[in-house]
């Protein structure tokens, strides 16, 4: 499976507004709009602007009926592209339509394998038992797919597209992955049964793994596909997703230690997916390094 080098992707560290010379307070690339313009075009400025825009779209559409979450995801992609191109002044190969389906399917396959392995192991060790919920098959699947597409795309635009790339431009890939993972874990503290362990577990298994996945493939579609498969399979299996228990095709009964089952928070607070994620993250980081995508600070900052 091939990966592109950093140079082939035209990485943002080489194309962003910081790469150009400061030609004065009021002229040239660094001077447009004065001090406010320089702040807005800095990694902090464009990332915060983009985060606000995408978060606003998500808040208005995430729980809407029918295809509304998917339409919201499309609007979030448009908002992201606008901020990156008009404010950050950089290309957006990470959301390119060419190869998007391939990347999404590849990410989805990895996410599907990951979550099925975690569910199977927990069940094998006596942690879960499943029974058919008896709900309408098509309505449940349709609702889950629509909602989880919206969730996966908007969260990946915010955390990997904006936050991670802004940090990476200044401090390199390692710091960017670590910091975004911590914030990703903290963002999931609102679910039922959430605590410091669940936040740490999500930071490790999801924050670090999804960060590594993005660094490897440099594709929002890849990480969104992985994220989508992960959440959707959990929901359809009847397992709470980050402490939230939407309608699924099955109902699940948890038995034994919360360390195995994740308790009322769900599978993501189990030690099983945390350990499995390590087996996926390490190869991703190795492939990213081999392809030139794992950037140290000295190459990321200009």
3D architecture notes:
The protein has a two-stranded antiparallel ribbon. It is globular, with a radius of gyration of 20 Å. Residues 1-31 have low confidence and may be disordered. It has one domain (6-300). It is 66% helix and 3% strand. The chain has helices spanning 6-9, 12-15, 34-41, 43-61, 68-88, 100-124, 137-186, 196-217, 220-237, 258-261, 271-290, 297-300, and strands at residues 128-132, 250-254. 48% of the residues are buried. The protein is mainly α and 302 residues long.
Write the layout of secondary structure elements.
Elements lengths: L5 H4 L2 H4 L18 H8 L1 H19 L6 H21 L11 H25 L3 E5 L4 H50 L9 H22 L2 H18 L12 E5 L3 H4 L9 H20 L6 H4 L2
Antiparallel strand pairs: 1-2
Helix pairs in contact: 3-4, 4-5, 4-7, 5-7, 6-9, 6-11, 7-8, 7-9, 8-9, 8-11
Summarize the structure.
This protein has helices at 6-9, 12-15, 34-41, 43-61, 68-88, 100-124, 137-186, 196-217, 220-237, 258-261, 271-290, 297-300; strands at residues 128-132, 250-254. By secondary structure, it is mainly alpha-helical. The chain has one domain (6-300).
Defining key terms:
two-stranded antiparallel sheet, 12 helices, 66% helix, 2 strands, 302 residues, disordered N terminus
Enumerate the spans where pLDDT stays under 50 for 5 or more consecutive residues: 1-31
SS field, number of helical segments: 12
Shape: globular
Walk across the major sheet and give the strand order: 1-2
Please estimate the helix content: 55-70%
Average pLDDT metric = 88
Question: Got a strand count?
Answer: 2
> Could you tell me the radius of gyration in angstroms?
20 Å
List the domain count as a whole number.
1
Provide the β-strand percentage band. under 5%
Order of helices and strands: HHHHHHEHHHEHHH
User: Sheet bearing the most strands, described?
Assistant: 2 strands, antiparallel
Helix/strand class? mainly alpha
Q: What is the chains' assembly state?
A: single chain
Q: How far is it from the N-terminal to the C-terminal residue, by CA?
A: 31 Å
């Amino acid at each position: 499976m091939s990966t592109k080098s950093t140079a082939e992707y035209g990485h943002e560290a080489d194309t962003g507004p910081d790469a150009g010379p400061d030609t004065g307070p009021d002229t040239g690339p660094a001077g447009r709009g004065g001090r406010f313009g320089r702040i807005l075009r800095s990694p902090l400025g464009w990332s915060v602007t983009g985060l606000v825009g995408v978060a606003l779209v998500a808040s208005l559409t995430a729980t809407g009926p029918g295809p509304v979450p998917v339409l919201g995801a499309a609007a979030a992609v448009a908002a992201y592209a606008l901020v990156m191109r008009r404010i950050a002044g950089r290309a957006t190969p990470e959301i390119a339509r060419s190869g998007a389906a391939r990347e999404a399917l590849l990410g989805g396959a990895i996410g599907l394998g990951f979550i099925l392995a975690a569910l199977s192991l927990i069940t094998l060790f006596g942690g879960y038992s499943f029974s058919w919920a008896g709900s309408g098959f098509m309505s449940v699947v349709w609702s889950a797919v629509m909602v989880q597409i919206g969730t996966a795309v908007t969260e990946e635009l915010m955390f990997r597209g904006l936050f991670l790339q802004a940090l990476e431009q200044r401090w390199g890939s390692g710091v960017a992955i670590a910091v975004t993972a911590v914030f990703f874990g903290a963002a999931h503290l609102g679910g039922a049964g959430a605590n410091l362990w669940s936040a740490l577990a999500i930071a490790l298994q999801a924050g670090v793994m999804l960060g590594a996945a993005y660094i490897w493939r440099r594709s929002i579609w890849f990480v969104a596909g992985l994220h989508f498969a992960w959440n959707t399979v959990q929901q359809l299996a009847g397992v709470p997703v980050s402490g939230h228990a939407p309608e699924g095709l099955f109902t699940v009964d948890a038995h034994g230690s919360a360390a195995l089952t994740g308790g009322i928070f769900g599978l993501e607070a189990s030690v099983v997916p945390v350990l499995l994620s390590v087996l996926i993250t390490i190869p991703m980081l190795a492939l990213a390094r081999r392809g030139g995508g794992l950037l140290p600070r000295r190459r990321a900052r200009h």
